[in-house]
Amino acid sequence: MTKKIKPNLSMLQIINMSMGFLGIQMAFGLQNGNASRILANFGADVHELSWFWLVAPITGLIVQPIIGHMGDNTWSPLGRRKPYFLIGAILCAIGLVMLPNAASATQMMAANVLLLAVIFLAMMDASINVAMEPFRALVGDMLPKHQGTVGFSVQTILIGIGAVIGSKLPNWLTEWGISNEAPKGFVADNVIYAFYIGAAVLILSILYTIFTTKEYSPEEFASFEDGKEVVEEKSKFSDIFKDFGNIPSQMKKLGIVQFFSWFSLFTMWVFTTSALATHHFGLSPSDTHSADFNKAGDLTGSLFGSYNLYAVFFAFALTPIAKFIGKKQTHALALACGGLGLISMYFIKDINNLWISMIGLGFAWASILAMPYAMLIDSIPQKKMGVYMGIFNFFIVIPQIINGIFGGPIVSGVFADQAIYYVVVGGVCMLLGAALTLFFVNSDDDSPKELEEEIQQVHF
Prior knowledge:
The protein has 19 helices and no strands. By secondary structure, it is mainly alpha-helical.
């Protein structure tokens, strides 16, 4: 078989194959900005929130390696990765519709509202994982390695746009006249309608990618770069465990960095609403229903939208910055800015100035979504792209599980339910991640000349 190099893709082709991420991240933004608020509306205490959030990383821990392995060995008329996009999008859309309506469903089903909400949250997050991992693998499938940084940066841009819309949508709906207050035990209308819109955008964006992107056939894969990567022997589910034993060294090092990065992110997502309510609005930790608490919830969504908006702009800058200082230096700088951003939330008392904290978090988020994968992609064999992307997700979900187990008791027992102090702890963890990136991760192999070629080879 004649070996050949994967053709460069135009910017439009890269955008098309990543467009589904806009809908996925809109769903993710709605979840991150509102799940704690919804659970609190349903009666959860602040120290319980991280336990309820455990369903998200646990489902990711189970789902992503399995979906990655299945995707590596799926060749259907629809494609290799696209069947999983579609299944994940449909199930996630159902979860988006049902989660804020758990109280109403409880009345019909005579079930515990918090239990039902957690079930819907688990369904939603598992479905996001089903759809998200194949999108990561699709970049490795479709792009030559020198376009990897650009491919993940484009995904980051679309992720940022989707997250901005998802995070800010409840607040926008309030400004357009839809109520952000609700009877005790129910969710406000602005949140419910935002979740409906998110479900519709998710389905449409996934369908756009499915109809505009043609995946390579098994024969085409076998002809690219190194034919020996495509083997004829039948894959077995037990191969996942063998793949665990063959994790590349670079993945292990990046995994340690990911641990501290995602520990910080989980802290922010779970506890920001409570931190703002108690530290900035002066509310009691037990107040989870007042108008001011819902204002804190709206502010959380708005701030999360802001850091995602800043991430869009930083995503454009990642490749040029990496050209001059290197990938790992870029990632270390971004994490340091994110850590300082989280810590600054304690010192900035005026809520109108909290956007300053979000600038550093935007830089960190843009890099977290792109640079680790760009540094990793060269060390992963093509035929194992899906399963290794799934395994790499372990380094994302394990810190969230640990944080979910111990975060609530720490906030309650150590910080007397003042969640702002735990947000500061999250900032310190992100600073540790920056230091580990700088001194522990291998230097990237791309020279400035190669990165310049990478930029020039992406065209419309």
